[in-house]
Amino acid sequence: MKTFLLNLVQSFFGIGFLPKARISGAILIVGGAPWEDAQRGVENNETGINISRFSCRYYLAVNEKLPSNVGEPIARAQSDKFSRDIKLAGEVLVGGGGVMAFTMATACTLANDISTFGPTAGTVLLDEVTESQERAGWRAIDMSLSSDPGLVLA
């Protein structure tokens, strides 16, 4: 059956299709909706590292339940914009720059999307970085940044 399918694919796409697809790194989506618009991998490269992971957590810094006279919530006090916790990781590239140049109390600009859920505001600041090196591995970082809507550096 495997040989039959391989012959069928090669006859439909041409004999050289499979090796070229493997070399180019192409990923083929077979089927239909909703997968033709799906994203695989990290959306954008970040300067200074070979990015392997990126995440952005959106949350309300103020999200308090307001109780009635018997203690049951009847209302909430909520922020009007999201705060964000951003994490990224990857191998360090020669030459650095980009995320490798981030420092304390300075606005940080990222290439990846940190406004998927809105509204958002506030300056992105560096919180911490862990650098890792190992005998048979690559030099890598794990970085944490955050943003709160009311904190904007001029």
Oligomer: single chain
Task: Specify the biggest β-sheet.
Answer: 4 strands, antiparallel
Strand order of the largest sheet: 1-4-6-5
Summarize model confidence as the mean pLDDT. Answer: 86
DSSP strand tally: 6
How far the N terminus sits from the C terminus, by CA atoms, comes to 66 Å
Helix content: 10-25%
Stretches with pLDDT under 50, minimum 5 residues: 17-22
Overall radius of gyration: 23 Å
Estimate the strand proportion: 25-35%
Structural class: alpha+beta
Lay out the secondary structure:
Blueprint: H1 2-13, H2 17-24, E1 49-59, E2 63-67, E3 73-78, E4 83-92, E5 125-132, E6 140-147
Antiparallel strand pairs: 1-4, 2-3, 4-6, 5-6
Brief write-up:
The protein is of the alpha+beta class. The chain contains 2 helices and 6 strands, in the order ααββββββ.
